[in-house]
Amino acid sequence: MVNYTPRTVDERSHQFEDSIDTIMDKKFVWFSAKSGIEEAIEKMVRADVTGAPVLDDDQRLVGYLSQKDGLKLATQLRYLNDQARFVEDYMSHDLYSFHFKTSIFHVIQAFIDRWFHSYPITNDQGKVVGVISRNKMLAFVNKQSQTNWKKAG
Which of 110, 113, 118 is closest to 92 using CA atoms? Predict the structure, then answer.
């Protein structure tokens, strides 16, 4: 048996209440809707990302291109000799993003509830200013202190 007493939460400690902008990636892969799809897939592979936002000229989110989209397309191109087109022809329009002041806890819950591997992060003007991946979130959570919550009263 291991004798272990977890640390008690300091009342000033707010491990997951910080906003997502404190840990998001501010440098990220993105595409325009008119980007060539084969170049986009190659860029995702080289960058080792699970997907990337598709942005308009004002840096606003218009779509998302995932590894799954790329895999489906690469198979069609190689196996069926389909014609390569543009990112807009294959990107997802079912979009989820978070405002940069959303709490880390809220984003963790979204990763638990949905199958997405990453989310674009937007500012007050709706421009994409970062990305948070499930892998980065797991690494962040794993580094946090274990807590033992005190009962009120």
Answer: 118
Gap between the Cα atoms of 141 and 84, Å rounded: 40
Query: Residue 131: in which H helix or E strand, if any?
Result: strand 128-133
Q: Give the model confidence (pLDDT) of 24-70 as tens digits.
A: 999 999 999 999 998 999 999 999 999 999 999 999 999 999 999 88
**CA diameter of the chain:** 69
Distances (CA, A) of 122 to 26, 55, 72, 88, 115: 11, 11, 28, 20, 20
Q: Cα–Cα distance between 6 and 95 in angstroms, integer? A: 39
Let me know if 88 is exposed, middle or buried by CB neighbors in 10 A (0-12, 13-18, 19+): middle
Buried-exposed string 47-60: b where 16+ CB fall within 10 A, e elsewhere: eebebbbbbeeeee
How many beta carbons lie within 10 A of that of residue 81, not counting itself? 7
- Tell me the one-letter amino acid at 104: I
